[in-house]
Amino acid sequence: MNEAPHSFYNSFTGGRITKIHIAADTHPYKIRHLAENSFAILKNFRSIATRYEKISHNFKAII
Predict the structure, then answer these.
(1) In the 8-state DSSP scheme, what is residue 31?
(2) CB-based contacts of 51: which residues, under 8 Å, 6+ apart?
(3) pTM strictly above 0.70
(4) CA geometry: angle 17, 26, 31, nearest 5 deg
(5) Measured distance CA(7)–CA(35) in Å, rounded
(6) What is the C-alpha to C-alpha distance for residues 35 and 9, in angstroms, rounded to an integer?
(7) DSSP string of 23-42, one letter each residue
(8) Tens-place pLDDT, residues 24-50
(9) What are the extents of the domains in the chain?
C-alpha cells in the first residue's frame, strides 16, 4: 500500500500540503516580535525628531 506521508497529504485539511507540527519554545519569538515592533514604533517618530516637515504648519499637524 503506497500511502502519502502525513506531511504531504491530509484529508482533514482538504488535501492541502501541511507540515508536521514540531513543539518549540515560543518565548524567544515573542520577545523578538516585541523588540521588532518597538523599533517600528520608534521609526515612526523619527520624522518628528529630525523634523522632516520643514513647514511649521505641516510639522504641527504631525504632532
Answers:
(1) H
(2) 59
(3) no
(4) 130
(5) 33
(6) 37
(7) ----HHHHHHHHHHHHHHHH
(8) 888 999 999 999 999 988 887 777 767
(9) 23-62
